[in-house]
Amino acid sequence: MNRKSIHIRLSEAKSSAGSVKDLDIQIGKIKGEQWDEKEGPTPFPDHAALRTWDRTLLSRYKPLYLPFCDLCCLCTYGKCDLSGGKRGACGIGMEAQQSRIVLLAACIGAATHISHGRHLVDHLLEKMERRTLIDVGGSNVDVEAPMIRLVCGMKPKTLGDLETVLDYLESQMTELLAAAHTGQESDPLDFESKVFHAGMLDHVGLEVADIAQISAFDLPKAEPDAPLVDLGLGTINAEKPVILVIGHNVPPAIDIIKYSREHDLSGKIEVTGICCTAIDLTRFDPSAKIVGPISWQLRYIRSGVPDLIVVDEQCVRADLLIEAGNIQAPLIATSSKNCAGLVDRTDDNPDDIVADLISGTVPGVLILDPLKVGEVAVRTALASHETRKTKKTSSIPTAEELIEFAKRCGGCMECTRACPNETPLPDAMKQAATGDLSPLADIYDTCIGCGRCDDVCNKEIPIHSSLVAAAREKVLDEKYSVRAGRGAIQDIEIREVGGPIVLGEIPGVVAFVGCANFPNGASEVAEMAREFAKRRYIAVASGCSAMAIGMYRNEDGQTPYEEFHGRFDAGGIVNVGSCVSNAHIAGAAIKIASIFAKRNLRGNYEEIADYVYNRVGAVGVAWGAMSQKAAAIAAGFWRLGIPVIVGPHGAKYRRMLLGRKDHDEDWYVFDSRTGEKVQVGPVPEHLFVTAETKEEAMVLIAKLCTRPNDTSRGRSMKLTHYIDLYKRLYGIMPDDIHLFIRSPADIPITMKEELLPILQEKGLQDRIIPDPTLLKSQIRKQKGGSS
Amino acid sequence: MFEDIPVEVGLVHEGERIRKEDMRVELGGPKVSEKFELVLVKKPDEITDGKISVIGPDLADLEEGKSYPFGILVEVSGEKLEDDLEGVFERRIHEYLNYIQGVMHLNQRYDLWMRVGKKSFAKGLNSFHQIGSALISLYRSELPIIEKIQITFFTGGEEFHSTYNLARERYETRDARARGLLDEEVDTFYGCALCQSFAPSHICVITPQRYANCGAISWFDGRAAARMDPEGPIFPIAKGEYLDSEHGEYSGVNEHATKRSMGEVNRVWLYSAFGYPHTSCGCFEAIAFYIPEVEGFGIVHRRFAGPTVNGLPFSTLADSTAGGRQVEGFHGISLEYMRSVKFLQADGGWNAIVWMPAEIKELLDGIIPENVARAIATEQDALDIDTLTSFLTAHHHPVVSKWILPEDTEEETSPDYGTPGPVMSIGELPLMAGGVKIILKNAKIYAERIIIQPADNNKKKQGGKNV
Questions:
Q1: Which of A91, A122, A169, A595 is 20 to 30 A (C-alpha) from A678?
Q2: Fold of the CATH domain A228-388
Q3: What is the pTM of this model?
Q4: What is the spatial distance between Cα B279 and Cα B281, in angstroms, rounded to a whole number?
């Protein structure tokens, strides 16, 4: 129970005990919980409270800047050229400017999730009791909100309690944004530390949003066996009226389902979705269908299948009104964050709105009441489905039309230059002109659906649509499955894996998260997840990456979710849910500290991050990270000490956080038993790093799972995978293997003969495994008793 | 290292499954009645080091798609080896065979079930000599205390039966020794520091009659591990003087605890959940939790999903138990420990157990003394204390005899949350405000800080958001 702003006023009260006149009680906050856990040093921390921790990490992982742009154009002094050591008119240097932009990005990202959480909580509190209990996993989850406990130092029990958390997040976000003003913060590392702060706030916001919706909409509660749901364009029945929902905030989509249930229309209409709204909708109703990640927006809309498009917020294309118009499908915007220039019809009679949408009087409407969206969307889709039968609704060319388009191509290469993945479009067009569509169809696999090619073509070839046309059969064959987002990881599951992790049977936890800006198509994420699940790691997934994993079939025709189990255990592929469900991944790492070591979480961020950093072999992989949200999510992992690997496009996040394995002095920890400084080697070597290829990423994943506390058995297992993957990629033994072998017991037994000569040459060591910490405060004191 | 085998040998193949349609042959498995794998410790002169023999047809001569009787005999010698290590070495067979690409090994001992895949066969994996050579390399690599090793594979013949019978006998003798070995009979216990990588203050002591909490390491495993890697995370503890046979207190264990815990834990009672219980890490298999109302223990294991008899599920009880602390009345244990006669000996042993999930009660059928077994409630009998009390009474559970009504009730203690005394405490205060009567009964108002200001001093600005 947590309440704010209580005001009690009594003008006159009389009782046998006495009387009270003009009593006025104002209480800023009431903390009512009976939580016997000791409060740590930093409940509701501001940025400065954790700055020392951030700088500890940043001294190991110094930013390596990769300026995406040499200029600063944020104020009227500018543009200022910051290249070659020049400073801007305000005095800022290149490094600080890069970090400053990262801070802005992280703030935007965190703001989306926090405001998403605020919207959900406000919406739910309008409909439900404040006292609606938070329940994320029944009796199998004791630590219901690890991020909130850790950061805020409170234990939220009810939906109403989440307001206090949101108040904190919003005030902190404002401070961080303020720091990015011209002429404020000047130090690059302080900017970076603020980025970490934004990331941490982001994770709290994620948790607020997801535990609110899990509790209120009864989404799967930490269920390892959540149902398999349909994924892919090929699973959609276009004979039925089809609604497409896009975005990240699920209430309008849920009200669409509810309205159709109440009016006996379930099964008669298809509710399909793209991006996280789709994921969250299938958590609510497994019969809804996921089209695919964000990059499927253009191709699906242009197919003409959707009879109506409903958009909410985040990662929604900015040209959807135009695209919807091209296929004669009305559009409903539902979020104040994305009004799309449409007239607000929230207070209008649904009959009128439906009529206007069907007649085409308006291309779309803005409705800010999810309940009304539910009704208007279903009724409009039913009618729109009928009227669209007589219109040309697909903008995908026929094979013949495509060949004619292809003949126009003059091979100017503008499209390839505009393509983020530099696909060989002109060559493929040349082939297509001769009737061979296969090269174009191949490009479809790596296309991220941005549509930039369309805009630059001076022959006005609808290039993106042409790709889809060439790949028509593939597209219709996109029939996959994904396990519905399960939400949190059970405390019990974490206990179960404790032993195997200690004994090395589970070499690590790999989280595949983030957007769909993949360098070589979605299948690479599936390939990586399968590789590590087969190697008995725990693979965790969320958002667009969770969908990408599902878009794959093995030789037996199984999707990875059919091939691998959904338990948080060796060899599992665990879909936690949408972007906001990423909180459960960080949450699982935090819970390890609480569950195994009984570390207090309450307002105790630094100690827990130190624990996670030094002990929990977890790595995040955001192979197609695109958005500012992804930047914020990654930053939240960094502050907890969890390394993140991004794909080649990730270099555009302007800097990496790289460790220097050649600097021995960087890799000392305290042994908390003795207080001695112990060299532990470069584990984990980097905090934020980009990989060019999936093979390189896999080598890095295996390597970055190492931690100073690894038991010898655990370390030898981790190294086995590292060496095996490294050799597969480069054909030779890694040149840094000696840095990870602390004593002969760390040597993988199947590689002993091969490794011993190398190690003997480098000087085989016999170092102790410390009880590692970076914090002096964690050095234990000898208690009484004879020692 | 694996030159003699034409396929890869590595950990990455461990999880590999070979389906029926992909298999060249099946060795052992459910279709054949006799199969075995056995490790024997021998005298050095009985072993020809590196020798691999195949009795019966070799792999290449076995018909595709068929199942065959199968046996593996690994004989080893070494100065530091003893019979007690045989079982530990034997379990390596499973692990090592699975490292070989295209070989799947399931189960152990007389349940051995192996398949060789078509693909690897086609690559040239067609002789047990190759598999034997990989096994020998792996044994040598991981276990340098093995000085000499020879391996014999059996796919038929007279010797197969005689060795099979020998194996069955050996398993029985070994099991009988393992079950019968008493803490009193050995002079060394083992400590395990593996869990300390996550639970730094946990002090694990493994004795013949007290399995590690995780259920993964027996005293024999501990002994083997300590011998194989003297510098490793599992190490001997000289048990020292037997200070208290009822509670299981040993001077050596106490000294070890003091040293490892840096003085946090200075005494350990191995057979009790009270006083100075063994600490509980995080991955214990089950919890013995005291239920004061009936003066007995409930048991709950990790996989039991619902609430227990006191209303709390495993996850909540585990939170009270875990973290490498000595918590009286919340005791992390392994399932195996429940088979020990020392199980909570000081607290009454099985006579003190009042509730447990049906699943483990069935599992321990024959272990729980019969007279108590029927008096122990499961979730099918009781899910609250009142029902439990009636159940125990009706079934004459031994704890019932302890329930003598106390003459004067003990002083009630309430948990101390460090809450300050109330600022206001009101017996009954009816208030009238705007025609509505509000009665505060026994209201106590707690506050961290109270500031009282005259009403007209309140200059708070109107409007804006109240944050």
A1: A595
A2: Rossmann fold (3.40.50)
A3: 0.89
A4: 7
